Amino acid sequence: MRFDILTIFPGFFESPLKCSLIGKALLQKKLSVYLHDIRAFATDRHKTVDAIPYGGGAGMVMKPEPLVAAVESVPRQEKSLRILLSPKGTLFDQKMAKELAQKDQLILVCGRYEGVDERVKELAIDEEISIGDYVLNGGEAAALVIVEALVRFIPGFMGNEASVQRESFEEGLLEHPQYTRPAEFRGLKVPQVLQSGHHEEIEKWRREQALKITQERRPDLLKKVAKEIKNA
Ligand code: SAM
To answer: Which of 60, 63, 71, 86 for a ligand 1 pocket mutation test, highest count of atoms within 8 Å of Cβ?
Structure first.
């Protein structure tokens, strides 16, 4: 899978793309990430990428010319989608991550300032995506969230493919509690069933715990699953 990230701060991505599984996958060419500096597409002497908003108001708005030129400069693959990170976009979730992971290429456009000129969306964007109901300074952190969530679906990315299937949200539920060694820590013991080696009992316990924790913390998810089953 290929990601093209358009930003005025390419340096933002240096460390996160070097670390951990993503760093390793990049070295092994299981995925590729291309960073494009939007400022390089500004044509004036000062490399201007923003201007004051028409109609007045606070802050600056990203100009359409460099942004559209930057998006148009990216070579397109067959299954490719141009995404603008935006608090006004469709809310990103695990289901969307799975669907987007089927694409060959995502072009992620990071806004800054008060956002981008509306015409950019019409000319060079297929979808707007929000990572949550809060406002970030820029789309860079949101682009990284999308990359992190999607790469987990790339075959061979995770050491253990089963761990993706078992995770929170995969079955519409939050994940069961996890424990590791030692069996007792500061008087707190790992539940006996997990030490029993009895796989059926362990599965049953995990399922019950997943349901319990989802009911307690995210009853909305249970309602969603029930609705999906009903509509299936
Ligand atoms: N004035 C805009 C508004 O109220 O909708 C907010 C602009 S925000 C300061 C600058 C940029 O950060 C946005 O253009 C977008 O690219 C990014 N951004 C902010 N919050 C985001 C979110 N929740 N999800 C995705 N991108 C976000």
So the answer is: 86
Ligand 1 pocket by C-beta < 6 Å: which residues?
A: 85-88, 110-112, 114-116, 130-132, 134-139, 142
pLDDT, tens digit (0-9, with 9 covering 90-100), for 154-177: 998 887 766 666 677 878 899 999
Q: Which two tokens stand for residue 33?
A: 């990430």
Domain carrying residue 35? 2-151
Interval between CA 105 and ligand 1 midpoint (Å): 22
Whose tokens are 């693959």? That residue is 77
Number of domains in the chain: 2
For the whole model, what pTM was predicted?
0.94
Q: Which residues are 164's β-sheet partners? A: none
Cα dihedral across residues 216, 217, 221, 227: positive or negative: positive
Q: What is the pLDDT of residues 70-115, one digit of tens each?
A: 999 999 999 999 999 999 999 999 999 999 999 999 999 999 999 9
